[in-house]
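Hi everyone, sorry if this is the wrong subforum. Our group has a chain we'd like a structural model of before ordering constructs, and none of us has done structure prediction before. Sequence below.
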Amino acid sequence: MTKEVEFLIEICKSAAALITDDFETTVKGDNDELVTTLDTAVEQFLIDAIKKEYPQCDIVSEEYNPTAQLTKNCFVIDPIDGTSNFAAGLPLWGIQVAYIENGKTCAAVIFLPKLNEMYHADKSGAYCNGKKIRVSDRPAGKCFYSMSVCGKNASWDGSIDLKGFRYLRRIGSSSVSLAWIASAHYGGYATTYDTPWDYIPGYYIVEQAGGFTHDEPGCHVAANTKEFLDVLVKEIKGMK
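Answer:
Right subforum, don't worry. Here is the predicted structure as C-alpha cells:
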C-alpha cells in the first residue's frame, strides 16, 4: 500500500466519524440537487487534511471547488456521494477521494461506511477491506449494471437494444456502483454527468481491478469487460 493510499484511507475514516443523524438539508443548482450540512462539513475536513499534508496540490471538489479544473497534481473529492440516499437513511452512499500525480490517477479510496466496505487502489491493484478484488468475467447482458442520466433522458429506464436491460438497477450513487463493479457484484455503470468527483475515484479502482473505462464529455462509462463497455458507450451516445 502506498503512502498516498494510507493517507486517503486515514482521512476518509476520520471524515466518516463526523457523520451523525443530526443534519439539515437544502437544495442547490438548477436541478434542485440535495445537499446536507454534513456534505460541506465532511468536505471541509478533507480539504483541510489534504492542504496540511499536500499544500502544493490543487483540489477539485463538489461543494467548495466545483468549477476548478483538473490539474497535473490534484485531489478529487466527493464528500458524500449519494446524498439523497444518505438523507433518506439508505446505506448506499460513500466518501470518495482520488489523487492525481503528474496527470495520472495513482491512488483512490471509496469508503462505504454503512456497509463497512473500504475500497482502495494503487499501482499494486484494487482492494476491499484489504483483500484484493477483481471484476467479474460475466458477459454483457448477464450482469447487473447502473446508469445515471440527466436532462431529457432523466426518465430513461433501459433500451431493448441493450441486451439484458432487465438487469438495470438504479442505485443513486456512483461510488457504490463503481465499487461494486470492481468487486464483481456489478458489470457496468454509465453516466451523462460530467462532474469528475463522481467517477474519477471509482474509475481508477475499476481499472486496477481489471476493468475498463471510457471518458468523454457526456459519456462516462465503466465495465467489467471491453464488450460491455462498448455496449454501454453506444447506449449512452444513442440517447443524445
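For your construct planning: The mean pLDDT is 91. Residues 11 and 49 are 7 Å apart (CA to CA).
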